[in-house]
Amino acid sequence: MAELTFKSPGISTREIDLSQTRSSRPVGIPAGIIGTSLEGPAFIPLTFANFNDFVTTFGASDGEKFGPIAVSQWLTNAQSVTYMKVLGIGNGKQKNATTGKVTNAGFVVGDRIIQNNGYAGDNPYANTGAGSVEGRTYFLGSFMSESAGSTIFSDPGIQTGPNSVSILRGVILAPSGVVLHLSGNNMADTSAPSKSQTATNGSTLAGQKGSLTGSINISSQEFVMMMNGYSNSDTGKTTVLTASLDMTAPNYFKNVFNTDPLKIEEEGHYLYASYDIYPDMATVTGSGVVEASGVSGNLEDAIFLLTSSAGRGSASSSTEVDYEDFEYRYTHASSPFVISQNFGNAPHNLFKIHALSDGEGISNRYKISIENIKKSTSTSDLYGTFDLVIRDFYDTDPYPVVLESFRGLSLDPGSDRYIARVIGDQNIRYNFDVAETSQKIIVEGNHPVRSRYIRIETTLALEDASIPKTSLPFGFRGPNHLVTSGSLLATVDPGSNLSNTDITKRIIEPPIPYRESVAIGTGLLKKSDSRYYWGVQTMRKTNPAQPNLTSLFDNSFDAFTKHFPNNRINTLNFSVGNNAGTANVAGSILDSDLFNKNKFSLENIQVRTGSDGLADPDQWLSASYVRDGNITPSSTNKTRAFEESDLGKVANTKFAKFTMILQGGFNGVNIFNREKKNLTNIAARREYIESQSTATQQSTIAAYRKAIDLMASKTDVDIQLLALPGIRHPSITDYAIQKVEDRFDAMYIMDIEEVDQLNNVITSSVQKPNVQNTVVNLSGRSLNSSFAAAYFPDVIVTDPTTKTLVQVPPSVAVLGAYSFNDKVSHPWFAPAGYARGALNSVELPSVKLNRTNLDDLYGADINPITEFPNTGVTIWGQKTLLASNSALDRINVRRLLIDVRRKVRSVANSLLFEPNREETLDKFNSLVNPILQRVQEQNGVDRYKVIIDTTTTTQADVENNTIRGKVYLQPTRSIEFVSLDFVVTNAGANI
Question: Do 431 and 484 fall within a single domain?
Answer without folding.
Answer: no
